[in-house]
């Protein structure tokens, strides 16, 4: 009979969450590398290059791939004959492992979990509690999957109760464009089909833990082998979702998803539950087995698994944030690559909510935003000699409702964030002759290397959501909404839908 000791299990959980914070799964790197080689869209290719370079840098530096180090999710398959040598419950042991991982002094991870979610939303400070899923299985071993899911991709989860005669493909193709780019494509779509509503959601999440193997299905199909219905559905969805032209970071391109994973389960005759959850470009999960012999030993991947890519900054237009004018901003073109230099403010949801409250009450703001740029970011705490930890962008649409008031009442000139803006924000940007710049989601460590100094200016109690001032040097961004309201997240996919259709005809 296998005996799992408390300390071994806790340390295994801690080691696993540290491991996935800086190591992408190798199958993801190989799939993204292949997509990068095939990509024809310059903007999408640039975004993929940044993600791949960032991934290698994170592996070398053992620092987080993404500043959103995720909510901890653990899948356990517990052998029915297994014995625990433990004082704590399984949930308590998992939470202690997560706590150790996220507060590790050599690689501190961002604590994003909030207690009292519908009330005070108070940060737990150590990313606990984890979300744990249990399954009792035959045998006496313990199978463990640890995953870190970022909010940008989790927020795009979808679930529908279709009629049995409805088309799953039609629903997916209608729904994916509504998800925007806040889930940081290219990534993976996970589908759960059948069961009950909650079972479908769990199936979708669990499907994302499987290896990327769509290329094997494609090879079998090319050889004329007979595929199962789920396998055929995966291939059909991969081709049709990519034909939408959404592309890397929503900029338009050939590859939106690297794989489509599906798990299904028997369901009621009157029902067809379908859930869809995306995994972003910061795909993070690891699988291991415990047999009672001690904690897990996770072997690091070889750096040779990463493609050798150098990021060329010579093609970008350098911008001095300390002296930039509205006239200069008006000359920037949609899709143009800029390299930001100078002082850049930060602020996201909680800071914006406070600022708007102060404006509504007629109070003076603690920061002068006139002719300044604000970066929507919640950085990881620095370690050792770092100025700041990984500091990639957060989803900009969450700030849309604040945008007009910020532009009109503070003199703010521009914003930097992740993914598209909604029409509400685009209209405000156009009316105020401002600009929105996009940084690449999933390239947080690369971005942090462009930050040469950092200090808190206001709202220090908000932690990573405080207002900082960064000194940046050649921070790469793309003009996503210009001062006339032209948006690349609208024009890019539309252009590439036409190109992909033409490629298919040729």
Detailed description of the structure:
By secondary structure, this protein is an alpha/beta fold. It has 3 domains: 109 residues, no CATH class; 142 residues, 60s Ribosomal Protein L30, Chain: A, CATH 3.30.1330; 176 residues, Fe-S hydro-lyase, tartrate dehydratase beta-type, catalytic domain (fumarase). It has 15 helices and 19 strands. Strand 15, helix 12 and strand 16 form a beta-alpha-beta unit. Helix 1 packs across helix 4, helix 2 runs antiparallel to helix 3 and helix 12 packs parallel to helix 13. The chain is globular and about 70 Å long.
CATH architecture of the largest domain: Alpha-Beta Barrel
**CATH topology annotation of the largest domain:** fumarase
Query: What percent of residues adopt helix (DSSP H or I)?
Result: 25-40%
Number of domains: 3
The biggest beta sheet reads: 5 strands, mixed, barrel
Task: Determine the N-to-C terminus distance.
Answer: 62 Å
| Computed CA radius of gyration, to the nearest angstrom | 23 Å
The whole-number mean of residue pLDDT values reads 96
Are there runs of 5+ residues with pLDDT below 50, and where? none
Number of strands: 19
Question: Helical segment tally?
Answer: 15
Mass-distribution shape: globular
Strand content: 15-25%
State the CATH superfamily name of the largest domain.
Fe-S hydro-lyase, tartrate dehydratase beta-type, catalytic domain
Global structural class: alpha/beta
CATH classification class of the largest domain: Alpha Beta
Physical arrangement of strands within the biggest beta sheet: 14-15-16-17-19
């Amino acid at each position: 009979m296998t005996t799992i000791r408390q300390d071994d299990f806790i340390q295994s959980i801690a080691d696993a969450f540290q491991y996935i914070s800086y190591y992408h799964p190798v199958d993801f790197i190989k799939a993204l590398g292949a997509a990068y080689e095939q990509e024809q869209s310059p903007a999408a290719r640039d975004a993929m290059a940044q993600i791949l370079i960032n991934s290698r840098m994170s592996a070398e530096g053992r620092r987080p791939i993404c500043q959103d180090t995720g909510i901890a999710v653990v899948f356990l398959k517990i052998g029915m004959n297994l014995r625990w040598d433990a004082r704590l419950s399984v949930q308590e042991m998992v939470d202690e492992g997560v706590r150790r991982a996220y507060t590790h002094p050599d690689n501190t991870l961002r604590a994003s979990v909030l207690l009292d979610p519908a009330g005070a939303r108070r940060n737990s400070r150590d990313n606990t509690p984890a979300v744990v899923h249990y399954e009792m299985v035959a045998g006496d071993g313990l199978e463990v999957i640890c995953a870190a899911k970022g909010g940008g991709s989790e927020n795009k989860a979808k679930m529908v109760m279709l009629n049995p005669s409805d088309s799953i493909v039609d629903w997916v193709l209608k729904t994916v464009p509504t998800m925007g780019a806040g889930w940081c494509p290219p990534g993976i779509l996970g589908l759960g089909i059948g069961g009950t509503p909650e079972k479908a959601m769990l199936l979708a999440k669990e499907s994302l833990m499987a290896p990327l193997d769509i290329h094997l299905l494609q090879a079998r199909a090319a050889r004329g082998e007979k595929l199962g219905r789920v396998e055929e559905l995966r291939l059909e969805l991969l081709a049709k979702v990519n034909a939408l032209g959404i592309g890397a970071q929503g900029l338009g391109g050939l590859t939106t998803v690297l794989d489509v994973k599906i798990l299904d389960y028997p369901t009621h005759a009157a029902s067809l539950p379908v859930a869809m959850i995306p995994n972003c470009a910061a795909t993070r999960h690891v699988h291991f087995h415990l047999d009672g012999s001690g904690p897990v030993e996770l072997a690091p991947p070889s750096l040779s698994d990463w493609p050798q890519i150098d990021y060329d900054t010579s093609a970008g237009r350098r911008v001095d944030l300390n002296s930039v004018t509205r006239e200069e901003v008006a000359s920037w073109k949609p899709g143009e690559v800029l390299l930001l230099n100078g002082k850049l403010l930060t602020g996201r949801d909680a800071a914006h909510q406070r600022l708007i409250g102060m404006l509504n009450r007629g109070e003076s703001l603690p920061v002068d935003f006139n002719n300044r740029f604000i970066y929507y970011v919640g950085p990881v705490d620095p370690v050792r000699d770092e100025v700041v930890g990984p500091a990639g962008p957060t989803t900009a649409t969450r700030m849309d409702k604040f945008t007009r008031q910020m532009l009109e009442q503070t003199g703010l000139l521009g914003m930097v964030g992740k993914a598209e803006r909604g029409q509400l924000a685009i209209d405000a940007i156009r009316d105020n002759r401002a600009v929105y710049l996009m940084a690449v989601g999933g390239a947080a460590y690369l971005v942090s290397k462009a930050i040469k100094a950092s200090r808190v200016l206001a709202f220090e109690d908000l932690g990573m959501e405080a207002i900082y001032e960064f000194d940046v040097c050649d921070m790469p961004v793309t003009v996503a909404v210009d001062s006339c309201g032209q948006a690349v997240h609208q024009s890019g996919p539309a252009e590439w839908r036409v190109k992909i259709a033409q490629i298919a005809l040729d």
